[in-house]
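note to self — DONT lose this again. spent like an hour looking for the file last time. sequence + predicted structure for the chain T wanted, 220 res
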Amino acid sequence: LIEVSGTDRIEFLQGQLTQDVSYLPSPGKLFSAWCNPKGRVIVTMSLVQSDDIIKLVVPAGIATKIVQRLAIYRLRSNVDFSILRNNIDALHDCIESDPTKLIYQGIPIIDETNSETFTPHMLNLDKLDAISFKKGCYTGQEVVARTEHLGHSKRRMMRYRADSDGLLVGTKLSDGERNVGEIVNISGRDLLAVTPVYMHDQLLTSDGITVTPQSLPYDI
């Protein structure tokens, strides 16, 4: 948990995150992402309102990096950050933490293993209501808005099932002639991977392992 406090916390996060923080319910949560200036997702997160604090639920391995980079943008804003570790009960109240369930739900987790690799549309964040297209500017907004206004993304995240163990986050997937996709998340043999949309009904392979497309709970 990264706690964001201070009188400018909402205005500050509005200028950084894809989500419209002003709509964060209390109590309640929203799914969001933080992008770099090139529109690549640094991290995905859940936002939780708690009194005068906004909690960012992020993967533990990237938490320190997130705070350090957010602090660069702080300038004169009245905002502070603190990391709370090992607060398991609070985490379970905030988010779904089972990696297999997240894969079945088509919800990507971007952490230190796959940071700054994919755009929000590649990760289907627009389908998960993790992007506001009505609020003001935020880091990476120009790239995200351009993709949305074009009306489509040629590469999207799809769920797959592998026929063997051995695949990892970042593993490339092939159509037999060339690499066409990359694994975003994996749990056992269930995985999410960004691949060309026109190939979403095709089997793909990696080092002799075949992955078969599975359904997602939303349309892409």
